[in-house]
Write a structure and sequence with these properties.
The protein contains seven helices and seven strands, in the order ααβαβαββαβααββ. The protein is an alpha/beta fold. α2 packs across α3.
Length: about 220
């Protein structure tokens, strides 16, 4: 997976979740809590793909401590902080397009504010599908790029466009890209339509394996 275009510091999410700017902090904390509300309360094996410093795993564990949590990322600095933050979770340094887990490992895969950074996003989505169990849940969030660009302009951030966002998604496009059943959508942070939201959260479900049909035998009722 290409990484040469990534320009943000390896631990930059820490600054966002604890930002002195109340609005920035609210937007990112709201996203974590919205994702945590979508996971099962117990008995699930959950992967945070692109886990960064572990803030989402911490939030999910606080709500549902009986699940098993894994995080994967390509940045060593972020993973070191994640291991210190979430001693109950397992962390793996892996390329999201080629993760070294067996097929059908996870009940839930969460990938938040990551897919827009990845040139090879289709390979990553296919890897998620491979790793999901039947009836498994894929949770994705991604930014509304035009609105984020406007927000950065109003906040005086430079450059106005986030330089390492190499993809721009809408809910309609994401439904075309993910070959799973779309089961939930919400605009974040205020549950507004996507064009008025800074981010989208979408849930997809992997179909269960159909049961084998019993063969019919003649001569019996």
């Amino acid at each position: 997976m290409r990484t040469e275009h990534l320009v943000m510091p390896e631990d930059h999410m820490e600054e966002l979740y604890s930002s002195r700017n109340v609005l920035v902090r609210f937007v990112h904390q709201k996203r974590l809590k919205a994702l945590a509300r979508r996971i099962p309360l117990r008995g699930a094996t959950i992967l945070d793909a692109g886990c960064g410093e572990g803030q989402l795993i911490e939030c999910m564990h606080r709500r549902a401590p009986e699940n098993s949590y894994h995080g994967s990322d390509i940045t060593a600095v972020a993973l070191e902080k994640a291991r210190k933050r979430c001693t109950y979770a397992k962390f793996h340094r892996m390329d999201l397009a080629a993760m070294k887990f067996p097929d059908a490992t996870f009940d839930v895969i969460v990938c938040t504010e990551v897919i827009e950074h990845i040139y090879e996003y289709r390979s990553v989505l296919n890897e998620f599908i491979r790793l999901l169990k039947p009836n498994g849940i894929l949770l994705l969030t991604f930014p509304n790029e035009p609105l984020w660009t406007l927000a950065r302009f109003l906040l005086g951030r430079r450059p106005i466009k986030v330089p390492d966002h190499v993809n721009s998604f809408t809910p309609r496009r994401m439904r075309r890209e993910v070959p799973l059943r779309s089961s939930f959508f919400v605009g974040l942070p205020l549950r507004l339509p996507f064009f008025m939201s800074l981010n989208a959260m979408m849930e997809f479900r992997k179909r269960s394996v159909p049961a084998p049909q019993q063969s019919r035998t003649s001569g019996h009722p």
